[in-house]
Amino acid sequence: MATWGYGNDNGPATWVKSFPVAAGTRQSPIDIVPTAAKCDTKLTENPLTVNYSPEPAMELCNPGLSVKANIKSKSVIKGGPLEGEYKLEQFHLHWGSADKQGSEHTLNGKMFPAELHLVHYNATKYSSFGEAVDKPDGLAVFGIFLKISDKPHQGLKSLTDVLSEVQYKDKSINIKQEYNPVCLLPDNINKYWTYLGSLTTPPLCESVTWIVFEEPIEVSEDQMKAFRALCCGECGSAPIVDNYRPPLPLGNRQLRASFQ
Ligand SMILES: NS(=O)(=O)c1cccc(F)c1F
Ligand SMILES: [Zn+2]
């Protein structure tokens, strides 16, 4: 079976053949239209809280279509749209071949150069990520837009400085210095949009409560170049770029905002 990817023969338009849920009613990403969002005071009354811990020797790997950090420590979130406590499992990114594209969610039709996803699972109800991944209330993912600035993002620098060591598929390293993923969050996490969606990659399970922050984090062009130098396979294989799924219709879903 041809494995899924982002090319012409195996990209997002072909996924429905192996993953029929791709044609479902709560698929992600979506285009975020702030004027269409409903400001919900229940979200502000019950603030989103993040309690992340330092990760000693964080594992960073190249699974072939992104770069991913696996989390072992107890880093949890709750509140906002969430019932119960969700535990951080991994984070990864999606990016473009150029700054004009790369994010999965769009803002009034605008793409950002990249988007960071911090994936959490409902640890109150389920005993593992694997058990939670296909449940309607199984996952909560933070979506953070990346924008270009002349200064590198210090939190991401610990990762972009070593991406050359995971350039090829199935390479992995441990980050020596302990790493607290809280450094990846924007300053203001009280302004976000939230809606019920799915994984943006196969198996596309409709199990994600999405929380997309209004405030982007800022990265340098050199850091973007480091992501674009990652390879899909072994030495000489194509670079990992444009690993994003374009937006799907919101349909009957309610997009809620935590702010006016
Ligand atoms: N792009 S994504 O955040 O939707 C995602 C991708 C793979 C596994 C996940 F659990 C997940 F959440
Ligand atoms: Zn993702």
CATH superfamily: Alpha carbonic anhydrase
Work out the number of β strands: 15
User: Structural class of the secondary elements?
Assistant: alpha+beta
Mean pLDDT: 98
H/I helix tally: 5
User: Could you name the CATH class?
Assistant: Alpha Beta
Distance between the ends: 47 Å
How would you sum up the global shape?
globular
- Portion in strands: 25-35%
Instruction: List ligands, each type once.
Output: 2,3-bis(fluoranyl)benzenesulfonamide, zinc ion
Question: Main β-sheet: number of strands, strand sense, barrel status?
Answer: 13 strands, mixed
Structural description of this entry:
By secondary structure, the chain is an alpha+beta fold. 11% of the residues lie in helices and 27% in strands. The strands form two sheets. Strands 2, 3, 4, 5, 6, 7, 9, 10, 11, 12, 13, 14 and 15 form a 13-stranded mixed sheet that branches. Strand 4 and strand 5 (68-70) form a beta hairpin. Bound molecules: 2,3-bis(fluoranyl)benzenesulfonamide and zinc ion (ZN). Zinc ion (ZN) is lined by residues 92, 94, 117, 200. 2,3-bis(fluoranyl)benzenesulfonamide is lined by residues 117, 119, 133, 139, 141, 199-201, 208.
